[in-house]
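COURSE: Structural Biology Practicum
ASSIGNMENT: Worksheet 4, Part C
STUDENT ID: 0417
INSTRUCTIONS: Below are two proteins. For each, the amino acid sequence is given first, followed by its structure token string. Answer the questions at the end about the second protein only.

PROTEIN I
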Amino acid sequence: MTEHPRTGERGDERTETEDDRRDTDAGPATPGTADGDGDDERAAEPTLLEQMGGVAGLFYSSVPIIVFVLVNAAFDLVPAIWAALGTAVAITVLRVVRREPVQPAISGFFGVAIAAFIAYRTGSAKGFFLFGIWASLAYFVVLVASVVVRWPLAGVVWNYLNGTGNAWRRDKPSRFGFDVATLALAAVFAARFVVQRWLYDEDHTGWLAFAKIAMGYPLYGLALLVVVWAVRRSDKRLKQVVEAEQETDEQIEARLRAKYGQPPPHGT
């Protein structure tokens, strides 16, 4: 039994100062941390596939392209343009009625609208794919440039959306992981540009449609696997860095005992 240095009361070997510190470190109770609620909330977070609209979203994104190619082959360019736009609008309305994620459908509609406008202006069915071809090149350049300037976009976007700051940039292994993930995304867009540009120059409109679908979400999903690897690698690294910088409980207890002139616990 020892006398407490602050209150003069007698207590056990663990001081109030230590208890107060541990209570403070524990922080205020937050909703969802008790009874496994936090795990339930994390489990409820949408997966990457769900964020892209789910399996239905993958299907819906392909329908306007298929309709455009089929109607163009059977009739002409203008009917194909209107058919593709009508299909995109119908898909958006359907998703609203069914209360499914609407954002992928809206993005798809604007993409179809831009492609249809370019096809109309060029007077060629293959012009429907021109915007996507050059957009792929632009994305490739931006992604590679972000790695060159040491701000890989995969890391910038992920950590911005999750509010985790820029600690990942100060850790070289974390930044390297996001460099790899960013270059994986860049490789996807480079492949899209090279293949689809060649098909465009060769006037293979049907194969252009096939390439756009096959090199869309499926190929993008493979690159996202690399992003997930980089995120998990960075999270693990940063956790280790934080733990290494923090004092252990034993070190803090020893420092407090030395400060208040208390002997070490029995048996040490």
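PROTEIN II
(use this one for the questions)
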Amino acid sequence: MKNMKKITAIILLLTCGQFIGRAQELRCNVTVNSNQIAQVDRAIFDALEKGIFEFVNNTRWTDEIYQDYERIECGFFINVTEQEKDNAGQVVADRYKGTLTINARRPIYNTSFFSTLLNYQENDFSFQYIPFQQFYYSENTSMSNLTAIIAFYCYYIIALDHESFSPDGGDKYMVKAQNIVNMSQNIPDRGWKANEGNNNRYWMVNDYLNPAFKPLRELMYNYHRLGFDVLQQNMESGRTQIIESLKSLDKVWTQRPNAFLLQVFFSTKRNEIIAMLKDTPLNAKAELIPVLKKIDPAHASKYDAVNN
């Protein structure tokens, strides 16, 4: 998989004319917005932002050697909306609620464009942050809720990136994400347990590794490596691969209608798919759009608009 990325960036290397040293796996932007919290020292959230940034970008998440140009571009946006309160209505020290948005992207070969790998928002996001605490990841040790969440998504992003360059290439790192879920079962905050609903971290990784979702995993490689990465060289071949890979999602929908992973996929890829369809021949649109409307019915009008 890493060789594929080196091909993607060979022009950059030749232009620089110099060796680029070793780097960590992720190039992550971190933003913490606390504008809705009036009575808390802003320095606390500045420290939180810096702490997560250093944790994500300085931790070595894999045993692979990444060059700087191979680092995966991603982002965490935390919007803190309120301080938690106990049953008596009293503020709980150092505990907050809000939303967490996670995004990641990978380059499209021989272009200056990127394809989105993940764009997902957790709306039921709560955490404890003791001012200026340090973040550490340990594979076999329980972590705080916030540390575990960030580590989970780091491995999830790395797994998706590998899947897009090599068939089933993300297995190792998706299992690491699953291990974090398993190690976090005693955390009281929501998001880690199967019985809390079907739209959480537990199901994100559990379903991804479930054989029923094999077509979605195959799509990650066919859509990106055989589809978008060859568009510049062979538009027809690349577009055919993209369309066929998207049509294969019907197999997942047949077994698991309204599956959470399908929702995550379309929140990530919907705009990209619509942009691609605008330049797609009518016969190919006629085959694909009914499938997309069936799986993503809330946005059927957006797919219909492509034909106008």
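ANSWER KEY EXCERPT:
Q1: Residues 214-308 form one domain.
Q2: Residues 145-165 form the longest helix (21 residues).
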